[in-house]
Specification:
Blueprint (H helix, E strand, L loop, with lengths): L8 H11 L13 H11 L4 H14 L3 H6 L2 H8 L6 H17 L7 H4 L7 H12 L8 H10 L9 H14 L5 H14 L18 H4 L17 E10 L9 E4 L6 E3 L3 E4 L6 E5 L10 E2 L2 E3 L2 H14 L4 E14 L4 E11 L9 E4 L11 H7 L5
Parallel strand pairs: 1-9
Antiparallel strand pairs: 1-7, 2-4, 3-8, 5-6, 5-10, 8-9
Helix pairs in contact: 1-11, 2-3, 2-8, 8-11, 9-11
The chain binds iron/sulfur cluster.
């Protein structure tokens, strides 16, 4: 890789001082390591705009590491609800406890120690160490890789580990030794607002005079496009199982708004009387949506899916008296696959005794359970 010797860092820093984004986690000087940490974990896989409210609410609930460490896991996951990728919340919680036990409540100041904490990788470590502790550490993510690939006209796959390593070395040569945290944030801001994916806004960029991709007219071609392969779609059958209804005990229809992600959606759901209970169970502690609650479901669709799910429920002693026609179809996309969920209403013969991990609950009790994201979309069918 051919290094450009021109020092463009002052141009970037001057631009940052004028144009930096005002964000709720960018407060205090020096910055609080816990606040940097929480914001960086939330920002993984989630847009800045979406994170702002979650971040503010989180800080009200868990203002510092002792508060987070003392919380129950369910409470932590509930507070994360809506952000997705719940392992991030669990790791944050576990790591807060590790900080309390091993470091007396203070986030460690070395890369070696901080990356031993659950859920803290190289990028987050670099962000915390540079922004909160003023260490000369890099924080190289996709944004920074893209910006550097353009400035230095790197026409290689920036996702390859060799190229990442080269760019990380390059970032070190450009760091502002007096302001390493601001330098990392300046790169983040430039990548998020100016040197954006696709068509960069070079007219607003402080680096147009030094940018090699711009000079070569290749700014839209770099970095190389890495096409996302289509994720496989798995059919899933879901039963909203409720206890039997009769006479005045019958749930009554209500008007419904169509939630995001729903392809077919009834115009009416039900307002269930207090006596009606719904069946939920907890997913296994490991794997996808680990430990979250959900309506009974199984892989498959159509008659086969319904028959399989009935059989599974019978195995737990839950007998199904009646199953409706499909009432809803929802596609939920994960990073590696998608669920095409067909939802049915099912009525149980009775409110039978249940094994561990299964519950009959009333509508108002759903708020006390961390329902898995895909199943939250279903919940609005029966909530008042
Ligand atoms: S000149 Fe354009 S391509 Fe180059 S760093 Fe700036 S915005 Fe990115």
């Amino acid at each position: 890789m051919d290094l450009v010797t021109e020092n463009w860092t002052p141009l970037l820093m001057a631009w940052y001082d004028k144009h930096k984004r005002e964000l709720p986690w960018r407060t205090g000087s020096p910055r609080d390591p816990y606040r940097v940490w929480v914001s960086e974990i939330m920002l993984q896989q989630t847009r800045v705009e979406a994170v702002k409210t979650y971040y503010t609410d989180w800080m009200e609930h868990f203002p510092d590491i002792p508060a987070l460490a003392a919380a129950e896991e369910d409470e932590v996951v509930r507070q994360w609800q809506g952000l997705g990728y719940y392992s991030r919340a669990r790791n944050l919680h576990t790591a807060a406890r590790e900080v309390m036990e091993q470091y007396g409540g203070r986030v460690p100041e070395t890369r070696e120690e901080i990356t031993r904490l659950k859920g803290i990788g190289d990028y987050t470590a670099g962000a915390i160490l540079s922004m909160a502790y003023g260490k000369r550490e890099t924080a190289v993510d996709g944004n920074v890789l893209r910006v550097f690939a353009r400035i230095y006209s790197i026409e290689e796959n920036i996702l390859s580990s060799a190229v990442k390593k080269d760019i990380t070395e390059l970032v070190k040569t450009r760091q502002d030794p007096q302001r390493p945290g601001d330098f990392n944030e300046a790169l983040m801001d430039l990548g998020a607002t100016v040197c954006i994916p696709g068509k960069p806004r070079c007219d607003a960029c402080p680096l147009t005079e030094v940018c090699m991709a711009k000079k070569a007219g290749k700014e839209k071609d770099i970095p190389l496009r890495v096409t996302n392969k289509e994720v496989p779609v798995e059919p899933v059958t879901v039963f909203v199982v409720r206890t039997a209804d009769s006479g005045s005990n019958k749930p009554v229809p209500q008007k419904l708004a169509t939630p995001a992600g729903a392809r077919r959606w009834p115009t009416e759901g039900w307002v269930a009387p207090d006596s009606v209970r719904y069946l939920i169970h907890r997913r296994p502690e490991k794997g996808l949506l680990a430990g979250m609650w959900e309506f009974p479901s199984c892989p498959g669709e159509g008659k086969d899916g319904k028959a399989t799910l009935k059989k599974i429920l019978a195995g737990f002693g839950i007998k199904i008296k009646r199953v409706s026609r499909p009432i809803q179809e929802i596609r939920h996309v994960f990073s590696h696959k998608a669920w095409q969920m067909t939802v049915y209403e099912a009525v149980a013969e009775d409110e039978c005794a249940l094994p561990a991990g299964w519950r009959w609950i009333a509508v108002e009790e759903f708020k006390d359970y961390n329902l898995a994201g895909p199943h939250n979309k279903i919940l609005s069918l029966i909530q008042r």
